[in-house]
Amino acid sequence: MPRAPQARRKMYVLDTNVLIHDPNALLNFEEHTVIIPMTVLEELDSLKSGKQTVAADCRQAIRNIDKLLGDASPKAIEKGVPILRGKKADPLGTLSIVMSSEGAGNHSLPEHLNDNKIINSLAALQARHTSHDIILVSKDINMRLKARGFGVEAQDYHNDQLLDDIDLLPKGYQEFHGSFWDGIAKVETVQREGVTEHLLKREGELAKLNINEYVIDEQGFIGQVVDVSEDQLVLKDLHQHDLMNEEVWGLVPRDIYQAMALNLLLDPDIHLVNLTGSAGSGKTILALAACIEMTVANKAYKRIIATRSTQGLDEDIGFLPGTEAEKMEPWLGAIVDNLEALHEDDENMTASVDYILSKVPLHFKSMNYIRGRSFQHSLIIIDESQNLTPHQIKTIITRAGNGSKVICLGNLAQIDTPYLSPLSSGLTYMTERFKGFRHGGHIHLQGVPRSVLAEFAEANL
Fold first, then answer.
1. Those residues with Cβ within 8 angstroms of residue 228's Cβ, 6 or more apart along the chain or in another chain
2. pLDDT tens digits, residue range 172-197?
3. Which of the residues 35, 42, 115, 135 has the least number of beta carbons within 10 Å of its own beta carbon?
């Protein structure tokens, strides 16, 4: 009987942006060979200094490479050092470093660009290892296009992409036409401490629901999934009138989606709230109103910490004059704008905003200074979180200490970071990873209630 043909071994050559995006990327290529060109090490070296988020990721990537190589000899490194993933686990795959100056004869690209040096080293590897598939892994679309044009296979780094289509991302609720109850064959209803709960069989459309998601229909019914098992889910009956009239620091929800978002924000058992939606859908103002209510009126939390990911913030903050709070002010103008919107009907809006800022323990923090911190009994607002990588979002969420709540706000249609897309954004990664978390909730806000002008621009420009 003829033997099945053995699958060709693959050699993955990593670009610098992959190691910055995920410093642990080296461990994610299974039994295949991972190659790091010398040019990539040089780029990591040039970016490793400073307090920027990128610098911290570079240092982490360099430490990981050093740990995997250990005290291997130069010959062993050239041949490939086995990648150890745990003390007791068998090594899987190998890691090696190659010189980037090995051109591909007369057909090499001019080496005045680092990208060209990496592509030339790939071509040289391809000529030497004809029995292997040589694949460049890069987050840079143009780098991948150049490599393909030069005859080298190139791929994006997909390890932390959990979805193939952004439309598959949970919205946090499911809408039913007509009456929700028309499609329900059997239900058991119980009263618990003044709360009505419906026990339903988990089948059909209901099988797609996760914990803390909502069910809404056109008849005015709204329910929240409070418990999920393999074959059953428990739906807590909420009253739409109460939700729509919930006033938080003078703010009343404009639609049912904002009402559901406020319900999650004010729930003491929810430790992570994730609000997505288009520009002007109310993400920041809802979060800010709920946070002020919970710190000033309820005293459930001691402080509000606001931070945001903005392209340029890491580099520019050092050149701005003043204290950290004053340096952060231009970037967190959205917070002040929303404070003004909450008090626009006051006799003296400026005095009201100044009073709030003096009364509310509201701290503006740069992401550079959040690493290594631990925030207890705090509300942490992360604005523009669509610009974070999965690794960066993990770094920030793990800062939350006892009694803290994290609120992530973002719009996946407005990504400013060069190597991120809606599918590879940390916001998408976190939403998908946390969808079964008992103490987490997510709402995708609809519509553009900011103004008639904003709504028309969103739809037509």
1. 202, 209, 210, 211, 234, 436
2. 999 999 999 988 888 999 998 889 99
3. 42
